[in-house]
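It is worth pausing here to work through a concrete case rather than discussing structure prediction in the abstract. The textbook approach is simple: state the sequence, then state the predicted structure, then interpret. We follow exactly that order.
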Amino acid sequence: IWKLEESPEKDKVTINEKSEVAIHYFVGTKSNPRYDNSYQRGVPFQFGMSDNGLVPGLKKAMFQRNMFDKLWILVPAKEAYGSKGMVDLVKPNEDLFYDIFIMDVDGKAPKEVRQ
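Step two, the predicted structure:
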């Protein structure tokens, strides 16, 4: 995990196991760079840290990060889709690369940021 930019001290709202989070992201693999992103849809991805459908390595990387952090995350294949891959988007045993901006944690971001 590389923290590209850390949130200002006054904005520290830390993600925990019960947090509801909204992020903008790009995700890709070596063979399929940027196969998905929330920016193109114009809507941040919202999820609960307790959601079981979240990529395990992403959940692990997001834990204890802060609102407004910008991150670059490498999720090893074994903590992503493993030997099964995902449809035609992720080959078996491929690592995932995420570029993330944490927009909101538990509804504490200003309204104009959350949209």
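Step three, interpretation. The beta strands are 2-5, 20-28, 36-37, 45-48, 70-75, 96-105. Residues 29 and 91 are 9 Å apart (CA to CA).
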